[in-house]
TrEMBL record, chain A:
Family: Belongs to the VPS25 family.
The protein's name: ESCRT-II complex vps25 subunit
Cellular component per GO, a single term: ESCRT II complex
Molecular function as annotated in GO: protein homodimerization activity; structural molecule activity
Organism field: Mycena rosella (Pink bonnet)
Pfam family, one: ESCRT-II
Entry keyword set: Protein transport, Transport
GO biological process, one term: protein transport to vacuole involved in ubiquitin-dependent protein catabolic process via the multivesicular body sorting pathway
Automatic annotation (TrEMBL), chain B:
Family (UniProt): Belongs to the VPS36 family.
Protein name: Vacuolar protein-sorting-associated protein 36
PROSITE patterns according to UniProt: GLUE (PS51495)
Biased segments, Low complexity type: 156-172
Length: 190, 547
């Protein structure tokens, strides 16, 4: 039995395993389940990177019409991901540090690390250098919603804060309180 | 007339044994007899069976047994004659009926048909006397021996249901034209006088009704009193005219057996069991015991002793039977062996041999080889080996069409095949490891993750089954039920087999609960489509960061 890949309307190439009905069932045996969940994590992160999606909720498997439709449902084989299984996938991602519950203290919604905070830190630093904004004070909004689209566009503030914290460890950033909230000053560093 | 007066109708469809009193005994029977009422043949009683008991003479009619059968109390027979028969006239026994007994009284045959079949409580010792004793025996308390009449009998006679044999007699005796209301009333309370206005039953000494003061019909009631409506007047005057000859009944023996029967009848009449019945046959032998507390205690004691000894006898019989049973089994095995040997030489089995075999199997004694019991084998190891061999032959039948069988079924099947000397499950567990040496193809045991233990043939070894299932599922994913029918195993067993394979990653499942439209509770099994899967989706994009 062979399955084929499929390109979605948003231009994402779904893997062939996404056309296999058993892929959508939570396998009761740990060995098989680990393999399948691994594939789901790869798929979710690849899709999140493709669509620049930062947040995955358990509700995404419950309601239609959301950003994750192309992944959590497969109309061609009449299968969908059950919320219970999605919840368990998210839990696995959190345990592997590929996501974090956001806001913390609940398990229904998670922030996806298709780039780790360390990687985001490098992206932020590189962006500041390339746009000549070192040593100036930047508000979070200026970073997350720049006039010219950047890799950092739409980055959640919580993730941004983590990236800044990483930079601060190497002395390349400094959090500053400004009039309407918080700001950051980035340095060249060593 | 005589016949009707001295006899009591019984339901002849009931077997004779069920008609007897508890203390009555059947002595002899003779079929093919007819009855003469006086000098004439009694038209309704010309073909039947006569039974003589310690208390009564029964005539059970061959046709219309329910209405033409009757019983005569031996107590009302005063004399008997025997006539040997001549030419075409068959042998006859003549019974002279004594008048005294037929007069109304509590022992009269037509009177109080309920008396033998009611239980009553003794007014002295409060012992509840059981129903079913003969009238004489029933008049005396079975425990303390006090006669029932010595205290007001009205205590509380517990009537049994009216469906008992003798109580069915009345309707057939009653003339259909009899005024049913008055006769019914009189039967229940012979002395009471029914008020013509309000029907209240007044005491016989009253002249006016107790309720409505209507004058009571004295004369009429007195006439009724001495002669219940079911009987044609009082016997005396008319009987005198009829002469003594009329007061006899003849039994005509048309099929012989007369001499033997007459002898028995004489003996029974002589022994007068009906008169002494009360003292000799009442529960417990009270003859030696005086009355009073000591008597009661002795009665109770002796009846307990009787029961204990009876029980002992029964157990001894059982033990003897068990000893004999062993011989029986050996004999059966021997017979079977010989039959097999003889049938091997000649092609067709003789009819007798087939009959013996079928009767042996009906007795549960048919065995190709007798079950192995521990005393047949010299030591534990050989016993195990023999058991394993026996089990192997049983399994050959049990697993003819199946590759997997649960241990419980094996145990049940094995013991059923053995029939005797059943084995406990623990022995089965001990024998199972020896099985591979005695089976071909080898049958081995296997324990599923759930703890279920089965025996299986090589095709159901895990690797072989996995390969076969993979092939099966490659064609099309299947539910457990479909797998079970394909593999010809029970659904539960199939679930265990697949479950074990699933645990090893051999198969994966597709739950219909995950369907977007429709969806049920079925689970389909697939070959493991994830094994060796390499990501073939969107390439992981290079870090496309644009500075």
């Amino acid at each position: 039995m062979s399955f084929s890949t499929f390109t979605t309307p948003t231009g994402f190439l779904l893997p062939s395993v996404h056309s296999a009905p058993p892929f959508f069932t939570q396998q009761p045996y740990p060995g098989t389940n680990a393999t399948v969940t691994e594939q789901w994590i790869t798929l979710i992160l690849a899709y999140a990177r493709h669509r620049k999606l930062f947040v995955l909720r358990v509700e995404d498997a419950e309601i239609t019409d959301n950003d994750w439709q192309e992944v959590v449902r497969n109309e061609r084989i009449n299968r969908k991901l059950l919320p219970s299984y999605l919840s368990s996938i998210i839990a696995t991602m959190v345990s592997k540090n590929l996501a974090t519950y956001d806001p913390p203290g609940q398990t229904r919604s998670a922030l996806l690390y298709w780039r780790l905070p360390e990687e985001w830190a490098e992206v932020l630093h590189g962006w500041a250098i390339s746009t000549g904004q070192l040593n100036t004070i930047l508000t979070f909004y200026e970073i997350a919603d720049p006039p010219i689209p950047s890799p950092l566009s739409n980055i959640p503030i919580n993730l941004l804060r983590k990236a800044i914290a990483v930079l601060a460890k190497t002395g390349r950033s400094q959090l500053i309180a400004v009039a309407d909230g918080e700001g950051v000053r980035l340095f060249q560093g060593k | 007339m005589t016949l009707r007066r001295c006899s009591r109708s019984v339901d002849g469809t009931i077997p004779i044994q069920a008609l007897l009193y508890n203390d009555e005994e059947l002595l002899s029977s003779q079929e093919g007899v007819g009855i003469y009422d006086g000098a004439q043949k009694s038209p309704n009683h010309q073909s039947g069976t006569i039974h003589v008991t310690t208390h009564r003479l029964f005539y059970l009619s061959a046709h219309r047994a329910s209405s033409y059968s009757l019983a005569v109390d031996l107590s009302c027979i005063s004399q008997t004659d025997y006539y040997a028969g001549l030419f075409k006239s068959s042998a006859k026994v003549t019974l002279h009926i004594s008048v005294a007994v037929t007069s109304p009284g509590d022992s009269g045959p037509n009177d109080g048909p309920d008396t033998p079949f009611e239980s009553w409580e003794c007014g002295v010792c409060a012992y509840r006397n059981p129903p079913g004793l003969s009238p004489a025996a029933a008049r005396i308390c079975g425990l303390c021996g006090i006669p029932r009449d010595s205290f007001p009998a009205a205590a509380s006679p517990h009537q049994l249901s009216t469906s008992l044999p003798t109580s069915t007699s009345l309707p057939s005796l009653l003339p259909p034209s009899a005024p049913s209301s008055s006769s019914g009333t009189l039967r229940r309370q012979p002395n009471a006088i029914a008020c013509p206005a309000c029907t209240f039953l007044n005491h016989p000494s009253l002249r006016e009704c107790e309720i409505c003061t209507t004058e009571l019909p004295q004369a009429a009631s007195l006439g009724m009193k001495s002669a219940p409506s079911s009987r044609p007047a009082s016997p005396d005057p008319s009987d005198d005219e009829e002469a003594a000859a009329a007061r006899l009944i003849k039994i005509s023996f048309r099929k012989g057996g007369d001499k033997a029967f007459y002898a028995v009848l004489r003996r029974s009449l002589k022994s007068k069991a009906w008169a002494i019945g009360a003292s000799t046959t009442a529960p417990g032998d009270t003859s030696g015991a005086g009355s009073g507390i000591t008597g009661i205690l002795r009665t109770v004691e002796s009846s307990a002793q009787e029961r204990a000894s009876g029980m002992n006898d029964a157990f001894q019989d059982l033990e003897a039977l068990m000893v004999k049973a062993k011989d029986m089994v050996r004999l059966a095995a021997d017979l079977n062996e010989r039959l097999t040997a003889s049938s091997a030489s000649s092609a067709a089995e003789p009819e007798a041999a087939t009959f013996i075999r079928s009767s042996l199997s009906q007795l549960g004694l048919q065995m190709a080889d007798a079950p192995v019991t521990q005393d047949m084998a010299s030591d534990e190891q050989r016993w195990m080996a023999q058991l394993a061999r026996e089990l192997a032959s049983v399994l050959k039948g049990l697993m003819r069409e199946r590759g997997v069988i649960a241990l419980d079924e094996v145990w049940g099947g094995w013991n059923r095949a053995r029939g005797v000397a059943l084995l406990p499950p623990s022995t089965l567990l001990q024998v199972v490891p020896h099985l591979p040496q005695y089976t071909d193809p080898t049958i081995v045991t296997r324990t599923f993750p759930s703890g279920l233990r089965v025996l299986h043939t090589p095709p159901y070894a895990p690797a072989a089954f996995a390969a076969r299932l993979a092939q099966l599922l490659a064609e099309q994913p299947k539910t457990i039920t479909e797998i079970a029918s394909k593999e010809k195993v029970a659904v539960g067993l199939a679930a265990e087999l697949v479950g074990e394979l699933e645990g090893e990653g051999g198969v994966c499942r597709d739950d219909e609960a995950c369907m977007i439209r429709g969806g049920g509770a079925e689970v389909r099994f697939w070959g493991n489509v994830f094994k060796g899967y390499v990501w073939d989706g969107q390439e992981k994009e290079r870090d496309e960061v644009v500075y």
